[in-house]
Amino acid sequence: TTRIERHHYDVVVIGAGGAGLRAAIEARLAGKRTAIISKSLFGKAHTVMAEGGAAAAMGNANSKDNWMVHFRDTMRGGKFLNNFRMAELHAKEAPERIWELETYGALFDRTKDGKISQRNFGGHEYPRLAHVGDRTGLELIRTLQQKIVSLQQEDFAETGSYDSRIKVFAETTITELLLDGSESADGGAVKVAGAFGYYRETGEFLLFETPAVVLATGGVGRSYKVTSNSWEYTGDGHALALRAGATLINMEFLQFHPTGMVWPPSVKGILVTESVRGDGGVLRNSDGKRFMFEYVPDVFRKQYAETEEEADRWYTDPENNRRPPELLPRDEVARAINNEVKEGRGTQAGGVFLDVSTRMPAETIIKRLPSMHHQFKELADVDITKQPMEVGPTCHYVMGGVEVDPDSAAAAGSVIGLFAAGEVSGGMHGSNRLGGNSLSDLLVFGKRAGEHASAYVDALGKRPKVATSDVEAALEVALAPLNRQGGENPYTLQQDLQAVMGDLVGIIRREGELTDALKRLQELKVRVANVGAAGGRQYNPGWHLALDLRNMMVVSECTAKAALEREESRGGHTREDFPGMNPKWRQVNLVCSLDKSGDVHLEHKPLPKMRGELINLFDRTELAKYLTEDELTEFDALEA
Ligand code: FAD
């Protein structure tokens, strides 16, 4: 028999990015024995790559900023498809979470009078991103880790063991969540009882028995070839949730960041931070034209400059001028670049130019954008203080994710004791996320998830029990690729999946291509079920990928199905055959679930209605661009 190491915890947090670490801190502060599990090395989660900053309406750079303005911007950015309650909690609590980070030892860049400095970003009305140069994620992770170490030292002083209340399992992958085996499968909700996985280095298996699991596994970008995401973003948390009976919402909404590197080919997709535009960078096509002025949609007309002169004046006098169109939300800019290239006004490598060299002195560029300067010098031999960068869209962020209760981060569906925070959760960002809103999302909802998971454990009577047969089943699934002779090559399968998703479920979508994608995904599913990995269990990346593929497949199917179903264009979902937003579709969340045979089901679920005091933050002319006639009549009654 295969040895399985057993552990018992009150709360198991899967993921050691910003959301996971913040959740773990909160669970430990609530006195819970907490495990943190991470596929990569501790400190190497995706959050570390975040560059621009964390959005929080502290009002340091412009005293007019407050949570209501932030809420409004977030709803506009998400084209009103956001879960309003999440957007409200996020806008209200983000400043507190940022200040709290400084009590943990973070040090953000400062204004002249010593406050936390805030920078401009797309879609944010005022400068709002707390930052540390262009390495904000590094500071965030560093600080959260430092807080965890300090808690472990307190625990050591008290118990003689650093790990007594909070333990990190690095380079450990969870492959399955386990449910309460003592509860009958009568169709009612079932409690979480544990998580099963393996150490990546040794291939040894582990079982965590726990009544509460917080998913904080990040995104899904690795199903696309051109992506800013690192290797671990294979949608594991999304898939774990689905298989445990939870639901996913808004999976059709993927954010293609407008500016990824396009050259050289080996680095295609690597992110070029939006701070470049926030700090004055402009986009030009191969004719040298600053083309974004042509792409301001009606809904944003009032807030954006119409001439280059006005746009340029805005950087020094934002009170009396409107913002440059380079700072439109990401979906708008990505589509504009896509179109310029398609119409033959792109660079040879298939991008457009992003230029700061003519906009700022070299010292300022190096001071404000040190990582970008370094990145282009090292990877492309381009000096951004002298030459423009070449950029194009790259798959960056998934707005869709685990459907959660906004206040407690508890997963919806038929499972209890499961919580989700950070990029793996859905709803908060609607159809499109504003830059900087993820780092603040991680902190706000990471804390909430940790707090509510702990409260759930406190209120629980009998602890749920893992069934031996479920552990055996999880083990069998994990070992299957190694036991299969002559199975499909996992790397070939991943490339084939990336081709389907990139070519047929990419930035611009069409009915015929989506139908084709679904057909190909079905074929791939059969092949993935037959994936094989040569070699043994000791550090075997082919085996790891073989297991990840199962997750990528189901998540991709959700995305393709939802993309075919949603017959409108909104935020990160553009249908060439259904251009423009349809107010009827704004009332609909598409909810994915999995049935016993592993098939994906889609359901239309009405969006929760925004409370009167929140809807009153918008004026009628703006609402008319998003709402149905019936909703507007309701709004008028509210007003009267
Ligand atoms: P992550 O930080 O990705 O952490 C996921 C964790 O889950 C990792 O530890 C991983 O190892 C673990 N994991 C995954 N699957 C498993 C499994 N099966 N078993 C065990 N562990 C698992 N947002 C902003 O707001 N501002 C920015 O400036 C910004 N810049 C960005 C720059 C780049 C290059 C990128 C790619 C993203 C940027 N974002 C930014 C987005 C933001 O960084 C991410 O959305 C955010 O960091 C996600 O955090 P998370 O805690 O949800 O997940």
TrEMBL record:
The keyword Amino-acid biosynthesis does not apply. Its cofactor is FAD. Residues 10-439 form the FAD-dependent oxidoreductase 2 FAD-binding domain. The active site is at 330 (proton acceptor). It comes from the Bacteria. Gene3D superfamilies: FAD/NAD(P)-binding domain, Fumarate reductase/succinate dehydrogenase flavoprotein-like, C-terminal domain, Succinate dehydrogenase/fumarate reductase flavoprotein, catalytic domain. This is Succinate dehydrogenase flavoprotein subunit. It comes from Paractinoplanes ferrugineus. The lineage of its organism: Bacteria, Bacillati, Actinomycetota, Actinomycetes, Micromonosporales.
